[in-house]
Amino acid sequence: MRQQPRIHRNARRRRRLCGQSLSHSPRARIPRVAFRSGLCYRPGSGPRPGPHEGSRDLEADGLPSRPIALIGAPIEVGTSEPGAVMGPAALRTAGLVRVLRDLGLAVEDLGDASPDGPAADRGLPAVAAWTRALAREVEAALGQGRLPLVAGGDHSLSLGTVEGAMRHCAAAGRPLFVLWLDAHADFNTPETSPSGNVHGMPLAALCGEPGFDGLFADPGRVPLDPARIHLFGLRSIDAGERALVGARRVAVTDMREIDEFGVVAPLRRILERVAAADGHLHVSFDVDFLDPGIAPGVGTTVPGGATFREAHLIMEMLHDSGLVRSLDVVELNPFLDERGRSARVLVELVASLFGRRILDRPAPAAAVPSGSDRR
Ligand SMILES: NC(=[NH2+])NCCC[C@H](N)C(=O)O
Question: Following DSSP, what letter does each residue of 96-115 receive, concatenated?
Answer without folding.
Answer: HHHHHHHTT--EEEEEE---
